Amino acid sequence: MSYTVGQVAGFAGVTVRTLHHYDEIGLLVPGERSHAGHRRYSDADLDRLQQILFYRELGFPLDEVAVLLDDPAADPRAHLRRQHDLLTARIEQLRKMAAAVEHAMEARTMGIDLTPEEKFEVFGDKDPEQYADEAEARWGGTEHYAESQRRVARYSKEDWQRIQDRSADWGRRYAALMAAGEPPTGEAAMALAEEHRRHICTWYYECPHELHRRLGEMYVADERFKAFYESLRPGLAEHLNEAIAANAARHTS
Question: Which residues form a coiled coil (predicted)?
Fold first, then answer.
């Protein structure tokens, strides 16, 4: 079985020009040619292309990819193990970055008063000032904003670490709930949605169920909040929004 350059480009999500370039530099030379001289790719060629794209996604220069793949002592399984380790580390790094952005938004929104060193220690390498203007425009005149500023002004670094740890624990449990196939309208999901609401009440401001429902909608509508929840588990933002809505409905009906 062999494939045309157009078919392979479609399979892999790359351009025909990219495949031509890989051929020209000797990185991926098609194993066959048609009678008319057109490139034909075998299953082995597709396996090599998959390896190339994995390494390219991980940031390896193409010349280094060629060296890695052409090493006669290399076991194909060793490539997969190396790529799995690198991808796992990258996923964890991206999750931490997403959490840092979420905490950075909350930091300025809630008026956290920490030293610069503490801000970066607690919230990672993202600038907690980044969303200051938006937060002020969005919530600056509300009672909830004022209340949150009064509360968090008293928090120490240890308080913020406690908040972060509890949030992380909640996120792990919600992801596990989804992995177990629990529906958003089920008792378990609504219980975690209620825990989410009470966390806001405890640390930031009084959050009635109707306000919590609007927050759930924002977690889906605002790409930055959505990215944070999706980093915990794909689909979590939508699942949580539905759980919050169901929990609000049963407490307000």
Answer: none
Label residues 142-164 b or e (16+ Cβ within 10 Å = b). Answer: eeebeebbebbeebeeeebeebe
234 vs 223: which has the higher pLDDT: 234
Beta-bridge mates of residue 33: 39
For 40-57, how does the pLDDT look when each residue is reduced to its tens digit (9 = 90+)? 999 899 988 988 888 887
Contact 105, 131 (CB under 8 A): yes
Lowest mean pLDDT among 110-119, 125-134, 242-251: 125-134
Rounded Cα–Cα distance for residues 240 and 167 (Å): 14
CA distances to 17, 29, 152, 210 from 33, in Å: 17, 10, 68, 65
Quick: pLDDT tens for 67-88.
888 877 766 677 677 777 777 7
Question: Would you state the structure tokens that stand for residue 7, as one six-digit string?
Answer: 């078919």
Q: 76, 35 in Cβ contact below 8 A?
A: no
Contact 90, 58 (CB under 8 A): yes
Helices 76-109 and 116-123: crossing angle, nearest 10°?
A: 140
Helix axes of 209-221 and 236-252: crossing angle, nearest 10 degrees: 160
d(CA 154, CA 184): 35
- The pTM for the full model equals 0.48
Residues contacting 104, CB < 8 A, separation 6+? 123, 124, 126, 127, 128, 130, 131
Q: Which residues pair with 32 in a beta bridge?
A: 40
